[in-house]
Write a structure and sequence with these properties.
Layout lengths: L8 H35 L2 H24 L1 H58 L14 H16 L21
Length: 179
């Protein structure tokens, strides 16, 4: 809350405390009486009235210029145009948002479809790449027979001729117990 001359209540209290300290209780009463008479005379003087009226005229001057120049209608037109532009921008933003949402949904649908096609292709490829079951191995009755059969198959595959001809025959394995 602004008081007299822009001085608020806390400032007035500070001034009173300082005056009490500096002047003392006896001189403070007579000084306050003199100060009150001076403020009364200043407030009711013609100079003060002139200051107040000039201040009021200065505050009203911008509104007066607007009225005299006929700018009130122009200001109203500008406000209406501003409101129309805002409404148009909201409509345009709504349309763009709708279009972007539709485009996003379409792109999502296309991505889902492409993903499904890719998954189907992967499943088809996986189905075509499944290895054929291994040929049935004749059932060996002993460990030695199974070893010999595995050795023969591995040896045959390792020494197969690259052009498809018959692999060369190896000499028979040496007799372990011969001297």
């Amino acid at each position: 809350m602004e008081g007299f001359f822009g001085i608020g209540i806390p400032e007035v209290l500070l001034i009173l405390v300082l005056a009490l300290i500096i002047l003392g209780p006896q001189d403070m009463v007579s000084t306050a009486r003199k100060l009150g008479r001076w403020v009364y005379r200043a407030y009711h003087s013609p100079i003060w009235r002139q200051i107040v009226s000039t201040s009021a005229e200065l505050r009203e001057m911008p509104a007066k210029f607007v009225r005299e120049a006929g700018l009130e209608d122009t200001i109203e037109d500008l406000k209406k145009t501003n409101a129309e532009v805002k409404a148009d921008l909201k409509d345009a933003a709504g349309q763009v948002t709708t279009e972007l949402t539709q485009a996003s949904q379409e792109a999502s649908g296309e991505i889902r479809a492409a993903s499904q096609v890719a998954q189907a292709a992967a499943v088809a490829k996986a189905a075509s790449d499944t290895p054929e079951p291994a040929p049935a191995v004749a059932k060996a009755e002993t460990y030695a027979e199974a070893y010999a059969q595995a050795y023969t198959e591995a040896h045959t595959e390792a020494h197969a001729a690259p052009n498809g001809s018959e692999p060369p025959t190896d000499p028979p394995p040496p007799d372990e117990y011969s001297i």
